[in-house]
Amino acid sequence: MASRISVPWLLAGRLASSTGRSVTGASSTSPLSWTWRSAPRQHQRRLYSAGGSPSGNKDRVKFWPFLAVVAVGSAGYIGLVNRRKDMSRSIEAPPTDAGQLPAPAKSTPTFSPSDVTVVFVLGGPGAGKGTQCANLVKKYGFIHLSAGDLLRAEQERPGSQFGDLIRDYIKNGLIVPMEVTIQLLENAMTEALSKAGTSKGRFLIDGFPRKLDQAHKFEDSVCPAKMVLFFDCPEKVMEERLLERGKTSGRADDNAESIRKRFRTFIETSMPVVEYYEKQGKVVKIDATPSPDAVFAKTQGHLTERLGTDF
């Protein structure tokens, strides 16, 4: 005959185990009133056992579902970390364009300083770097490479995947990723020497490096610089020159807003480059406020002093 007994819920499992009786249902009047029914011990099962194992055996808990969940979760986390690393690398170094940009890392520079002379030409926007480079080309036969001109040409090149990127950087007065600029310079140097049919040459690289990491990367992968020409000019004078040039240049960055952004960028990023080379004794500082002819006369004197009369 069935008997009724009220017990706390947490003790129900223990009573079922010790008495060999199973819980069949709860009283309609009290959730803690349960009906117990006798059953042969050999057929008794513990209803609260995870594995439904017979009484007398140790409870068996199946852990493999938990292990599977942990394994899947770990694999997903590792995949997420790797994707974030790939995204970070893609931002720092843009993808290549038809095998041209950028070149893979090299153990030695492409050009030897015994064959190729590289002179960096630095100065704020509007300091007159382009004018002085044109004079040096006529007088000494330098090959003039303007980093800005190469970038502007690349942004207009049909099919260039970097066109929009370069256009946005230049318009906002920002520095284009160095992998792009350095590869464009190396390509231009290689092309110039190939056309001349020689492995020796002298290059004026105008407006580069704009940052210290660019200087290190260029010297490690392309060619060490012989010296740096730094044309120093007050910001007010440079702004007046650029605004005047903007009337006819058609350049998107020859406007007041872009000019001020370029000034800030130059002070924050390019001046450390000048200071770095100055510590190596490679910088020739030239006052760029006089007339272009006067500035060129000073430039000639410094070049002769540093490189000799027959350089």
From TrEMBL:
Give its E.C. classification number.
2.7.4.14
- Enumerate the InterPro entries for this protein: Adenylat/UMP-CMP_kin (IPR000850), Adenylat_kinase_CS (IPR033690), P-loop_NTPase (IPR027417), UMP_CMP_kinase (IPR006266)
Q: Which SUPFAM superfamilies match?
A: P-loop containing nucleoside triphosphate hydrolases
Q: Where are the transmembrane segments?
A: 63-81
Which coenzymes or cofactors are required? Answer: Mg(2+)
- Cite a single Pfam family from the UniProt record: ADK
Enzyme class comes to transferase
State where ATP binds.
G126, A127, G128, K129, G130, T131, R245, P290
Identify the residues that bind a ribonucleoside 5'-phosphate: R152, L174, I175, V176, G207, F208, P209, R210, Q214, R251, R262
Q: How does it assemble?
A: Monomer.
PANTHER family according to UniProt: NUCLEOTIDE KINASE
Q: What protein name is recorded for this chain?
A: Uridylate kinase
Which species is this UniProt entry from? Answer: Epichloe bromicola
